[in-house]
Amino acid sequence: MARLSSLLSFSLALLIFLHGSTAQQFPNECQLDQLNALEPSHVLKAEAGRIEVWDHHAPQLRCSGVSFVRYIIESKGLYLPSFFSTAKLSFVAKGQGLMGRVVPGCAETFQDSSVFQPGGGSPFGEGQGQGQQGQGQGHQGQGQGQQGQQGQQGQQSQGQGFRDMHQKVEHIRTGDTIATHPGVAQWFYNDGNQPLVIVSVLDLASHQNQLDRNPRPFYLAGNNPQGQVWIEGREQQPQKNILNGFTPEVLAKAFKIDVRTAQQLQNQQDNRGNIIRVQGPFSVIRPPLRSQRPQEEVNGLEETICSARCTDNLDDPSNADVYKPQLGYISTLNSYDLPILRFLRLSALRGSIRQNAMVLPQWNANANAVLYVTDGEAHVQVVNDNGDRVFDGQVSQGQLLSIPQGFSVVKRATSEQFRWIEFKTNANAQINTLAGRTSVLRGLPLEVISNGYQISLEEARRVKFNTIETTLTHSSGPASYGGPRKADA
Question: Any idea where the Cupin type-1 domain is (predicted)?
């Protein structure tokens, strides 16, 4: 009995300690009386582009538990492989290129068996090369896979092997949304003629991030001469790649190379930054360009972390959730569309509206949101739990606005076209609207509206029924008080 009492006392003390510790680490950061449209606070310049970082210490971003970064990669620019300790959701705002991911423990399923190296011997050992080639069939087409397998079986005795093999490479283009697990190394290459612009949100408050609430890129190659200037208390010294921390002798033994090559891996004398310019052709094994992503039936049960689909395009109006020719469209991406988001606990919304179109007042029921403007301008108002208007102003291309959970927001396009991407901190974010056919006011009895707002039953009827759209409407003036209109959204 005494032992049980001691155990209970210890558990209670531990609970109090943990509660106090958590409160100190994550104090109430969402008592916001003002929001601002944010611009990047730090710019990291590189040989073939730049990385722009928003201040994640800004109150509205700390409230949402996220950080935001924009990558601008020039033509023939290569963003060198890096990984984060957080889940990441990215959006291709402009341009086209290639993307590669290296998932720990997964096989190299992209293989080049068209060019052999006589006399070099198999780089894998007997049997392993055949097994890897079998996995490559699914990505390079059955005919090519069979041809490569037959070639290897026929030539293996002569000591011939692959030219290269690596994990999956994908073509990316404007409108693509890319989900990335923590710890997964990722690289990008711009094979187009215009800059490749990618914006990313990092979920610092995620259960998968076991460090602190700071964005921490871990570079596998290259360096950052300016250092991680956004982390308070850290000395501002150049940030090298992680291989730099080991002694060259250790690297030489690990990679079975000479010490001089090991020193090259550390990029000690390399000042090109994390986005370098590729000289000459960039020859990696890649699939053909896709003209349009086929509609796939997936349930998530048959997908593994190695083969899971990680990209989806949100710029096709034919796949929009809400579409009105005169107003615009809205598309959402959640874990039902892209099952990998179930593990990342993130989702996205893409919007494109014409001038004087309005997104009806709404709030996110179960997620924080970060809105990034990709094109045009809009007038936005945001209201907090106190009923105070915490933001009332214009947002324009390249600006960022964080909208905490439950804060109501309305958007009205003031340029010819307004386009934005919203990242949300829930795999299946839900919205509730204040006005419209599926709104909260539409669901209330007339008597409740009449008494609650001290208006007549006729005025309550107009409040409840005059707006018959669900999401998008015209903002040019008040609706007519005439008879009922046909719903078009």
Answer: 35-263, 312-461
